[in-house]
């Protein structure tokens, strides 16, 4: 579901598995021809932002993106508000500062802020054992059940792993009670506080823990969580347009449609992906204005843009404090000397002592980034209606490193590397597309039908498609007989159609899971 928490992208096209798990971090134009609305630069203490806005706008066009929004802020105000492109490919309505984007895993930092408000009121404690906060808590082992603390569940160092398909493809499936129960079934891959393991399931349980400690029942968790986020986080922080939602249609009128490239490199609209009970890990719908206000709250040490104290400075800073090292890449973070995950935030330290507190996010059709430099009183928001793989992170990496290099002399040359990596990723899709052909109806007829996990394999004419909930994954075939997703969430991912020992058809979504057919089509 979520774009993972490491800021180093490998120079080759990342797999979705790698992006989602956090072991990577972080443009040929396709003829959109969209005219971006004018930037609204303001002169801050560091000078005007017109030249920076012009370079960002040029990169947006060079990457052939559909819609994005960028803000630069300090504690006193918004220095730059830059909506770019259009909200969808059909209406061509322009993106505005109020256009809502799915901001995915940046929600984690908001969930930790919600928990911090409970700590402020002494309704919870960071070092309280989870089982003492909620007696129903169960981890995969008795030792973990009786040792994990509140802060551990909001970090990425419990040692608990999760299957790649669980929160990557099936996040819309479990109810909140089922999600809580599933924690005890997850594999343990390391001792606590020894390895960085990005885990949306553990984080979601941690997000629900304050409510469970207050007596909220499992069936009421999702609705109560949305209300608590509205009342304790979004509203007080000045995020008037934010809410928990995985599909904006029918809720707001000014919203972004996510996009993804196909195997020709052309952008295609993408269905909204489900979040469901995983909302604490990535369920926020918000605008550029909302996210700018949120980053300003961080710079103002817990005081909102209208002067309201939302959370104590002490407990807000506790969320920023790194607890487990996060890997970085010398290629994309040459000046970072240390990086670690806190509670919903990653903190990088640069060679000059400057720190960057940040998180990114990715879900079907959307990639997001928020970050701030507390010593410099400067923050950044980048929202992009582009699928996280294979190209989504490169725009925010360009913008972030343009800011770092131009203003502070850090990570020089990385914007150019981000641009080159974007071009390489698109070319990788085109190269794959040049080897992909339509599928053979005769070769696939015996595999059509319903499969475990909610999958369906269908055919309409020459078009073979794999379906999972609202997601459609069209398939083409490679010369060696394997199949490839031609557009959609898993564009470029390999799919294999095989049979088990008793002849039952199997679908392997390579890197995620293998499922058996349950019902064939007549």
What would your notes on this structure say?
Helix 2 packs antiparallel against helix 14 and helix 3 crosses helix 10. By secondary structure, this protein is of the alpha+beta class. The protein has a nine-stranded antiparallel beta sheet, with helices on both faces. Strands 15-16-17-18-19-20-21-22 form an eight-stranded antiparallel barrel. Strands 4-8-5 form a three-stranded antiparallel beta sheet. About 8% of the residues have low confidence. The two termini are 34 Å apart. Strand 20 and strand 21 form a beta hairpin. Helices cover 30% and strands 22% of the residues. The protein is globular and about 65 Å long.
> Unreliable segments (pLDDT under 50, ≥5 consecutive)?
5-46
Shape by Cα distribution: globular
- Mean of residue pLDDT? 92
Structural class: alpha+beta
**Biggest β-sheet strands, sense, barrel:** 9 strands, antiparallel
Number of helices: 16
Number of strands: 22
Task: Give the terminus-to-terminus CA distance.
Answer: 34 Å
Helix content: 25-40%
DSSP strand (E) fraction? 15-25%
Radius of gyration equals 22 Å
């Amino acid at each position: 579901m979520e774009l993972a928490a490491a800021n180093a992208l490998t120079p080759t096209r990342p797999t979705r598995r790698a992006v989602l798990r956090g072991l990577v971090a972080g443009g040929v134009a396709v003829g959109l021809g969209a005219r971006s609305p004018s930037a609204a630069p303001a002169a801050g203490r560091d000078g005007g932002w017109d030249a920076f806005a012009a370079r960002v706008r040029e990169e947006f066009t060079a990457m052939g993106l559909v819609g994005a929004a960028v803000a630069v802020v300090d504690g006193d105000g918004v220095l730059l508000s830059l909506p770019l492109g259009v909200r969808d490919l059909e209406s061509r309505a322009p993106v505005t500062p109020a256009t809502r984007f799915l901001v995915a895993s940046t929600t984690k930092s908001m969930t930790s802020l919600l928990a911090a408000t409970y700590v402020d009121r002494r309704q919870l404690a960071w070092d309280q054992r989870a089982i003492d906060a909620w007696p129903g808590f169960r981890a995969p082992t008795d030792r973990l059940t009786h040792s994990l603390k509140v802060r551990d569940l909001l970090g990425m160092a419990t040692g608990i792993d999760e299957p790649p398909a669980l929160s990557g493809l099936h996040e819309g499936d479990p109810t909140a009670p089922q999600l809580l129960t599933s924690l005890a079934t997850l594999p343990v891959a390391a001792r606590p506080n020894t390895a960085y393991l990005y885990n949306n399931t553990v984080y979601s349980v941690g997000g629900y823990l304050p409510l469970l400690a207050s007596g909220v029942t499992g069936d009421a968790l999702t609705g109560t969580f949305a209300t608590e986020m509205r009342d304790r986080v979004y509203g007080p922080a000045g995020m008037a347009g934010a809410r928990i939602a995985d599909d904006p249609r029918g809720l707001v009128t000014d919203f972004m449609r996510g996009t993804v490239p196909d195997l020709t490199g052309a952008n295609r609209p993408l269905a909204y992906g489900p979040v469901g009970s995983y909302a604490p890990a990535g369920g926020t719908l918000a605008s550029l204005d909302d996210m700018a206000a949120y980053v300003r709250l961080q710079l103002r040490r817990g005081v909102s843009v209208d002067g309201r104290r939302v959370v104590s400075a002490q407990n807000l800073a506790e969320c920023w404090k790194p607890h487990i090292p996060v890997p970085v890449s010398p290629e994309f973070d040459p000046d970072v000397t240390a990086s670690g995950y806190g509670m919903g935030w990653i903190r990088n330290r640069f060679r000059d002592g400057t720190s960057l507190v940040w998180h990114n996010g990715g879900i079907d059709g959307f990639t997001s980034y928020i970050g701030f430099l507390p010593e410099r009183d400067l923050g950044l928001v980048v929202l992009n209606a582009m699928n996280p793989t294979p190209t989504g992170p490169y725009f925010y990496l360009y913008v972030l490193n343009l800011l770092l290099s131009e203003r502070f002399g850090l990570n020089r040359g990385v914007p150019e590397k981000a641009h080159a990596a974007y071009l390489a990723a698109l070319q990788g899709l085109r190269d794959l597309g040049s080897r992909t052909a339509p599928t053979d109806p005769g070769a696939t007829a015996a595999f059509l039908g319903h499969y475990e996990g909610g999958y369906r394999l269908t055919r309409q004419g020459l078009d073979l498609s794999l379906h999972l909930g609202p997601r459609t994954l069209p398939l083409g075939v490679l010369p060696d007989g394997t199949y490839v997703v031609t557009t959609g969430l898993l564009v470029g991912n390999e799919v294999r159609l095989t049979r088990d020992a008793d002849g039952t058809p199997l679908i392997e979504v390579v890197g995620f899971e293998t499922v058996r057919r349950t019902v064939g089509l007549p």
